[in-house]
Design brief:
This protein is an alpha+beta fold. The chain has two domains: 118 residues, Roll (Outer membrane lipoprotein wza fold like); 65 residues, 2-Layer Sandwich (wza like fold), CATH 3.30.1950. 17% of the residues lie in helices and 31% in strands. The two termini are 30 Å apart.
Length: 198
């Protein structure tokens, strides 16, 4: 967390209105590693959740988080799941189920992560869409995309982070980072980030 705060302070941020920066991106989505809980995973659309109520097989099922961020569950209907941690979702669902199931014990497991997607585009050897299943820095993402090609302008890489009303742009100088300088540029990537290599 401290590293993330320092990054936001030390890097000059440019904020612009949210454009459709990922338009037309496609391709396969290879995985990048194993699940990391270092920063507290937040559920996203497309994730598969195994949800069960102890000693009640009728309330045991797999739920896919819909594009609108909700899941449907018996007795309680639609519940907002996207953007929440497992413990936050568990608390809300238990609270709603208590009306129907006394002393409810709810178990939630993230069976499959499908929502932690980033994009690496531009002059890299294997541009595309990648599913993150671990905390990944910019340099690691570039390596996963096959590295820079000979025509890349490594000093002008940018990371676009879409927000609700605006997009934050983080500068990244590849040559500086690989030479051990200004390592605060090598930030953690988040869901929806687009790494652009001109």
């Amino acid at each position: 967390m401290l590293r993330k705060i320092l990054v936001r302070v030390m890097i000059g941020l440019l904020v612009v209105p949210a454009p459709a920066i990922a338009a037309g991106l496609g391709g396969s989505a290879p995985s990048l590693a194993v699940v990391s809980t270092e920063r507290g995973y937040r559920i996203g659309p497309g994730d598969v959740l195994d949800i069960s109520v102890w000693k009640d097989d009728a309330l045991t099922r797999s739920c896919v988080v819909r594009p609108d961020g909700f899941i449907s569950f018996p007795l309680i209907g639609d519940v907002a799941a996207s953007g929440r941690t497992v413990s936050e979702l568990k608390s809300e669902m238990e609270g709603k189920l208590k009306r129907f199931v006394p002393d409810v014990v709810l178990l939630i497991d993230v069976k499959q992560i499908n929502s932690m997607i980033i994009y690496v585009i531009g002059k890299v050897n294997n541009p595309g869409r990648f599913i993150l299943t671990a905390d990944v820095h910019v340099l690691q993402a570039l390596a996963t995309a096959g590295g820079l090609n000979p025509f890349a302008k490594g000093g002008k890489i940018k990371i676009f982070r879409p927000g609700k009303d605006e997009t934050t742009i983080f500068p990244f100088d590849y040559d500086e980072v690989v030479n051990g300088k200004h390592l605060e540029q090598d930030i953690y990537l988040e869901r929806g980030d687009v790494v652009v290599v001109p």
